[in-house]
Amino acid sequence: MQVITLPLIGTVAAWRAEARRLAQQGVRPEEVLWQRGERAADLFAQATPQGATAPPLTLPREAVAAMEGALCHSDPQRFARAYDIVLRLAQGRLRWGDRSDPALHKLLMQEKAVRRDIHKMHAFVRFREVGAPDAPRRAFAAWFEPDHPITEAATPFFANRFGDMDWIIATPDLTARFECGALRFEETRTEFRPPPDATEDLWRTYFAHIFNPARLMVSAMTSEMPRKYWKNLPEAELIPDLIRTAPARARAMQEAAPTLPHAHVAKLRPKRPE
Asked: Does residue 274 surpass a pLDDT of 70?
């Protein structure tokens, strides 16, 4: 049994390199134990003799993209599942996209869950300003708790969008630091929650103004903005009161709506010349 310990930073790239090496050596999926982070003691781990050299791997581009997305899932079996799928695709024993295959179906579902988690991170990260007023570049920080280890996959979005400032996004798994235009990652050692700043009032004002009580659907709102994120969203403090007062505010909006003119008014309007 070969034990492959993937690093916390660069996990997907390391898996890709190891999977290619193992496949070219003809190592079967059941002969590999995959893990991420510090190596755990395994009484059954031992070196596995190299097998016959296999031909180079050729996989569909969409398969590689989906597998690398699924590797950002939190499922401990994701590495072994992806390696098994790689071998079967390369050997022609599996067709990409065949959802009748349980392993491939699960991989595709996990890739979808990762994409949703990345979307939520892009939507619900709330930066607080932490830099000195006279600093050459403004500095911000945020704490976010994703469902999956997506920090490396999700944070380049912020580097492209906020390239004119320095920032930190800390998660329970990794911390992303963007300083002077360079993005780097490090293991999160302690929980870091930046203190409130003036932008929190802006978020509350914005959310209060876009909230439409006449179209309130709590289940739809909590589906798009799950409650697990509320503790890190300043505007979420307003939600319980906005929900409670929504019926009265909707009635007030209806009462204040303009009324239609009487039917005979249309007859009094002069006709436009043709």
From this structure: no
